[in-house]
Structure formats: C-alpha cells, structure tokens
Amino acid sequence: MRFVFIAVSFLLAQVHGHCQILYSKGDPDLVYIEQLEREISETTWDSIKAYNSFKLSVRFMLLNDTIKAKKYFSNAMDLSDRNPFMKAVSYYYKARSMFVNDDRAAINRNLMICDSLLAVFEHTEAYKVRSNVWQNYAHLQQLIGNDSIAMNALLSKALPFAKKSGDLLVLGRVNRDIATFLMNADQRKKAQVYLNNTAILIENSEEDRGGIATELVLTYIMMAENYVNLNMYDSAKLQLDKAKPMLNEKTGAVTIHMDYRYAEGIYYDKIKQFAKALESFKKGLDFPGARQSPYFQNRLKYAKYKTLSNMKDYKTAVSVLLDLDSASLFDKDRKLFCQELYKTYFKMGNIREAYRWSMRYIEVSDSLYEKKYQNDVVEMEAKFQNSENQNRIFLLQVEKDKAVLTSANDRLLVWALAGVSLSLAIGFIFGFQYFTNSKKLSRERELNYQQQLKEVEQQRKMQFTQALLEGEEKERKRLAGDLHDGLGGMLAGVKINLSRLANSAEPTAMNIDLNKVIYQLDNSVNELRRIARNMMPQSLISLGLESALSDMCISLSSEMTLVEFESFEIAPSLSKETQVTIYRIVQELLTNAVRHAGASEIMLQCSQNESAFFITIEDNGRGFDTEAVNHTKGMGLQNVQTRIDYLNGKMVINSTPGNGTTINIELHVGA
To answer: d(Cα 211, Cα 273) in Å, to the nearest integer?
Structure first.
C-alpha cells in the first residue's frame, strides 16, 4: 500500500477524526501558542496581528478547538485586506482551511492566486509562504493521483523557494515530502538521503516554534520504516527508540501513534519476532480514535496479514484479508487484496477458493483498465472532434472572405466601366490602371488564400500525427496492463492448476513433463511481464525521463555490451507526451544498436538547452552504408523519423561499414 504525504494525512486525520493533540505545561508547542497570543496583544501592526492570527487558527484546528480556530481565522481575514502582502497570504490559509471539506478545485484556485500575488515580493517570508503553497499543491496532486506533477512541484517550486527563505523547518518538510515520493517509487536509498537531510534541518531549526516535536517524531518514524525496508534493522531500532519518548511526552495525535506502531510492527516482523509484531499492530488498531482513520487502520491490518502469513497462520491471515477487501478505500487496494487472497488460499491447499479469487483479481484488473481505457477514448475523441470543428469553421470563413472579395471586385469593375463610358480617354487610362492593380491584388490574395489552406492542411496533419502518437502510447499502456494483469493472471492460474496436478501423485514421466511445462510457463510469465514493462516503463511515469533512460541503459547492458548514459540539464517540466516521444526514439535506436550493430560499447548522451533537446548515440559496432539505409528505411527508422518530425527535429546518421555509428538528433521541445 502506498505511503501518502504524511503532512497532509496528518492534517486531514486531525480534522476529520476529531483527534486532539495533548499538551502539558512547558510544552514547546504550548509556549509557541502563548507567544503568538502575546505578540498579537502587544503589537499595533495589523499585518503582524493578521499573520499570527492565521498561524493560531491552524494550531487550534489541530487542537480540535474549532471555536478559537474560526475566531482567529475570521480576525486574520478582516485585518488582511489592508495590507497587500497579507492579502496574498490570506489565499494560502483559505486554501488550507478547505482541506476539511476536500474542495479540491477551490483549494487549487486559492493556492495559485496566492502564488501569483506573492510573485512581486522578494523577501524571506514571501519565499516561505510560496514554498508552503507549492508543497500543499503537491499534496493535492498526489491525492488526485498526479504523482509526476506533484514531484515536479516539489523539485522545481517548493524546494527552491524553501532554500531562498532560509527557514530550516520549511526546507526540512519539503525534503521529507520528496523522500515520501521516492519511497512510493521504491527508491529507498535515495529517499534515505532526503530523510537524513530532513532530520538535520528540523533538529537545527528554531526551538521556540510550534510543531517542532511533532515534525521530528514524524521524521523519525519515516526513517525507521525506510530502514526496515532497506534491511538496516539496527538503524531502524535507533529511530524507533528516538521517537518513542517524544511520542509519549509531546504528542498524542492518533495517526502518529498508528504510524509508530506500524513501523515498530514491521521491524519486529523482519527480525522474526512475530508475537511482538502482532502486539504492535494490535496497539495501533486499538488506540482510542483509530476507527476514525480508515487509511491508517487498513495499513496496520495489511501489515498484520503479512506477519500472519509469515507465521503460516493462513486461516487468520485470510480473515484479515477478507476484512480488508470489504473495507478497501481504493480500487487498486482491492486488486492487491484479491491477489493476496488467491495466493493464501493456494498455500492453504484450498484450490477452489484460490481459483475463485484469481478470477476475482482478473475481474478487478480488467475493470480498472476498462475504466481508464474508456476515459482515454472519450478524451481523445473529444479532442479530435474539437480539432475537426475548428478546421471546418476556418475553411468556411475563408470561403466567405473569398466570396466577399469576388463580389467587391465585380462592383469595382462595374464602376470602372461606368467611368469609361463617361470619359473614354481618361476613363480608359484609369480603368486600365485600376484593372491591372485589381488583378495584381486578386492574385496576391489568391496566393495568400492558398498559403492559408496549406497552413490549415499542415496543422491538420500535425494534429492527426499527434492523435496517432497519443493513441499509440495509450494503446501501449492498455496492452501493457492487459498483458501484465490480465493474461499474466490467467497464466498464473494455469500454473497453479498444473502445479496441483504435478504434486498430486508419485513422480511419473507425466509429472516430469508437467514440471517441464510449469518451468516453461514460468519463463513465459516472466517474459510476458518484461514485455509489459518495456511497453510502458513504470520509472517513466513515476520518476520522469532522466531516470527512465538510465533504467533502460542498465537493462540493455550485458556481459557482451556496455551501455553508458550521460545527461545534462534535462528539465523535469517537460510534458508527459514529449517525454514519452523522446523515450521511444531512444528506445528504438538503442535496441537497433544492441541487436544489429555487434557493438561492445554504446554511449547515450542527452542534454537540453532551453527549448532544444539533443540526443547523441555512438557505438563501436560494425557500422553500415547510410546511403543504402536512406533508400530502404525499415519500420523502426520510419517510426523514429515520424516522432522526430512530430517534435520539429532533425536526425543525422554518420556511419561506414567497420567503423561504428554516430547518430545526432536535435528536437524542439518548447520553452
């Protein structure tokens, strides 16, 4: 199960779950509240009163004191109208207050208004708020499911603004959110670097500010969980020991307790202390108020199932899974639960139930991809129809202009003839000149009209090419999903039945043959999944173009062929369509080099300079006659050229037999 941004999940859990944070006398969070209230009463500046009131409204909302939260929020809004900076900041706090009702459109609108208004301010407080704006925007995009947009917002917006602000706490939060995204993408080692930075930054931030203890304990828990997944159990235990006393003394938030018990439980599970693991999960599930946090509940239950499965207590494990399936929050989770159910039933020897749940798994998978495919088809059809309508309107307007022009020319000709009849000599001279000019103007307009038609036709072809490429990529995604989850699931079901037959009697020639078939079937499933990953690599969707190209080079390297990759200044803000197009160009050319060039070394270089994107591929293979290839291009090079043309690019191939090959490509990817 995915790990959502802990800052957002914590905020929403406090508001929706009605879970208080308990403070004792001398607690730094309580001291922070008293300090803000004292500054409000002592200052005469409306801007300071407004800013501190906004901060108190958030703090009291976390304390579940809605009366004080609304009071301070209302006061802050009234005071903000008199100051341009605070007016801009008010949109950020207005957006934060809307997380309670999950009004995502309004949240997004207010965040963008705040950022645009703050663009004119160049001081540390403005940078701090803008970093928070983009951090919350990333949280919102992840809730929607736009992980790549969320990651780009953190790296290109939230992180630079946090650095400009010089605020260690804000910078630490951004680093932790980036780590969360990397954990979701199973990039645990990279995530640990950001988590270590987070801990150092927050530990060195100002001690008299509210929320420091909470931020630290959240970070320690995340570090513990990540260390467990990295099999660094001593380091995980150290972080758990650091978090536990802080959790008891300084915060009583339900979701933090549940996250702590989750990390503690999976730690005990990994070191084979299953009884302690189950005890930790039970403490998390039984914690007062846990029922109001279903996401965190399901996370603990799934971890409990894993421990029971490791203990081979399949009967209890199945009951936990059935409970999860009935209470799943997301379709993707239901798909996971169905998969685990058929695996567990198979381990129990209940082939009938295993088969039933494998069919259910296939049904849920098909349903997920059918929904996505239908949405994609409707969206593509709408785009195509809109484009066609625009073309028709433009052509009709051109025809209308042409008719008006023809009518005007006819009227002018009549006037010219009338002038000739009034004055033969003078009229003839002026009429001839006018007729000549009119014909010249008509020819120029006709040429202009023909040029416009050519531009319309060129635009239509570009739109048609774009639609084809988009359709091809969406079909790749659909086929990858069908191969991996549909056919792969069915092959897995066949393997289960063959395994049951092979193990049902004493070894015979038939059983030996069955085992060979099972082995071949297993290889077929692996090959099928490899093909599905190549059709639409997960790293391109999750981490962007640079990581996807690096993964491709690693996967194509072998003992016979070394594929090296260098990248320079590749912008993460490239559109997803452009990233996919570049990826397909490189994939086709590298595949050709590996399969046909007979090279021992291949070098791929990708760089970007503003709107220009450069690709260079060199190999020391056998080379080929470029003139012959130009006359007989195969489907692979034709597809590459089509994609290059789509990005208004050009390709130059330098190769001679026996001297290797160098391919240089320049693409235009927009500013």
So the answer is: 34
Contact 393, 384 (CB under 8 A): no
Strand partners for 612: 609, 668
Dihedral sign from CA coordinates of 543, 544, 546, 547: positive
Rounded (10°) CA dihedral 135, 138, 139, 142: -160
Map out the domains of the chain as residue ranges.
379-534, 538-668
Residue 562 to residue 600: CA distance in whole angstroms: 6
Question: Can you read off the two tokens belonging to residue 153?
Answer: 């917002």
The CB density around residue 195, as the number of other CB atoms within 10 Å, is: 28
CA of residue 89 relative to chain centroid, distance? 27
Q: Cα 385 to chain center, whole Å? A: 28
Going from the C-alpha of 42 to that of each of 70, 72, 282, the distances in angstroms are 21, 16, 49
State the Cα–Cα distance between residues 331 and 319, nearest whole angstrom. Answer: 19
CA atoms of 95 and 105, how far apart (whole Å):
10
Q: Please give the model's pTM, rounded to 2 decimal places.
A: 0.52
> Residue 504: helix, strand or coil by DSSP?
coil
Superfamily of domain 538-668: Histidine kinase-like ATPase, C-terminal domain (3.30.565.10)
Contact at 8 Å (CB) between 234 and 223?
no
List pLDDT tens digits, range 216-268.
899 999 999 999 999 999 999 999 999 998 876 445 568 888 999 999 999 99
DSSP letter for each residue of 574-603:
S-HHHHHHHHHHHHHHHHHHHHHS--SEEE
Q: Measured between alpha carbons, how far is 256 from 58 in angstroms, rounded to an integer? A: 18
